[in-house]
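thread: overnight batch results

M.L. [08:02]
morning all. the overnight job finished for the chain we discussed friday. pasting input first so we're all looking at the same thing
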Amino acid sequence: MIIKMKILQSKNPLEILNYVKHLLWDKQTIKELGEPIIYSEHQKWFLALEGEVITGFFVYEETNICYQIKYLYVVPEFRRLGIGDKLYKEFESTIQQDKPIRATTTKTGLEFFKKEKFYITLKYTNYFKVEKNEQI
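M.L. [08:03]
and the structure it wrote out:
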């Protein structure tokens, strides 16, 4: 499958909702993310699209002390096509790279973060806290 993906950066809640609405109540999506998708005005969203179909999304918030990754999700039928990598690289290219990057991930996402040179800071039964604290 060849994906001609475009990345859309948005803070517009109506635009974001238009693309992710079918994932909001999807039990498998919630299970994989570890929580329901929650929108906040402080979030920055990157949407991966194939035409008008969402293939994945990346959400983060910048605080005074870190960049906190809230969600990194690729729709199951579009996995293993490099979409998560492209979303993460887009994020990296937009930040100032002046503070740590932190995330909470499930076991499913842990390998992705390890590949990106994150290390585990806390380990729980069903999820992990990870951090990347080097200059990118």
